Amino acid sequence: MLRFESLDSFRNISHFITTRSGGGTDPYGAFNLCDYTGDDPEHIERCRSVMCGILNIPEDHLILPRQVHKTDVGIVEDVDFEGEYDALLTDKAGICIGVSTADCVPILLYCPEKRVVGAVHAGWRGTVGRIAMKAIRKMAEHYGCDPGEILAGIGPSISAKAFETGPEVAEAFRKEGFTGIYHASPKPGKIHLDLWEANRQDLVLAGVRPESIEISGLCTWSDPDRFFSARRHGVSSGRIASVILIHDQAD
């Protein structure tokens, strides 16, 4: 499991990003928590049990929403939370929130001053829709967080070198004002986009300090033994989970 160095220094939160755990040719690998991509429910339940054991929480305290590639941000107040969201926020201790990804960009957020955490799923649609900014603004509006005090970690996802798309997608980003994220492709009519940089720009525009943003730099497409990749394995495959949890003790 992977962690962000910038978040590891805080004793009152836990966070990590799962991997396939050497899943070989199995499209769901040895470890998968996502319950809506066709995996065996018993396998998912075993993985959830392991995850919650590591976190020392009941299984119903792990909240992973069904994601729909939109920009809605959900506020988690209790374990009965339901709905389709691509970002979650909470200030409740003992409830672990997270997102599931396989090439899309996972972002974990933490505001130490207000003890608020967030998890964001930013595919290209969410990124061009500025879901990262919307999550930061929701943290400010709902919890009173100062964006300048928020820390952000951009997790393993598809790199610019691997993310090839058509000109219509690039044009959508240009219309939103993203710069420096476009790279030429040797294939006619194709272009490479840097989603890491796009989300970094979005976070900075939302008020997060550049030095408070950590980018893992790990590409899901390029490391199939370690990560799930929807482009490589297909949509009927596992997902990595990026999760974050507030504990009761002080920082």
CATH topology: CNF1/YfiH-like putative cysteine hydrolases
Name of the level-1 CATH class = Alpha Beta
Per the principal axes of the C-alpha atoms, what is the gross shape?
globular
The quaternary state of the protein chains shown equals single chain
CATH homologous group name: CNF1/YfiH-like putative cysteine hydrolases
Q: What number of domains?
A: 1
- What's the alpha carbon Rg, rounded to whole Å? 17 Å
If strands are numbered along the chain, what order do they take across the biggest sheet? 3-4-7-6-8-12
The parts where pLDDT drops under 50 for at least 5 residues are none
* Structural category: alpha+beta
Order of helices and strands: HEHEEEEEEHHEEHEEHEHE
CATH architecture: 4-Layer Sandwich
* N- and C-termini, Cα separation: 23 Å
Give the overall pLDDT as a whole number. 94
Strand content: 15-25%
Count of beta strands? 13
What can be said about the biggest beta sheet? 6 strands, mixed
Number of helices: 7
Measured as a percent range, the helix fraction is 10-25%
Quickly list its features.
single chain, 251 residues, alpha+beta, CNF1/YfiH-like putative cysteine hydrolases, 13 strands, 22% strand
Describe what you observe in this structure.
The chain is α+β, with helices and mostly antiparallel strands and 251 residues long. The protein has one domain (5-158, 207-246): CNF1/YfiH-like putative cysteine hydrolases (4-Layer Sandwich), CATH 3.60.140.10. The protein has 7 helices and 13 strands. It has helices at residues 5-8, 41-55, 124-128, 131-143, 167-175, 195-205, 230-233, and strands at 13-17, 62-63, 73-75, 87-90, 96-101, 105-111, 116-122, 151-154, 164-165, 182-184, 191-193, 213-215, 240-246. The strands form 3 sheets. A 6-stranded mixed β-sheet has the order 3-4-7-6-8-12. A 4-stranded mixed β-sheet has the order 1-13-5-2. A hairpin with a 6-residue loop joins strand 10 and strand 11 (191-193). It is globular and about 55 Å long. The model has no long low-confidence stretch (mean pLDDT 94).
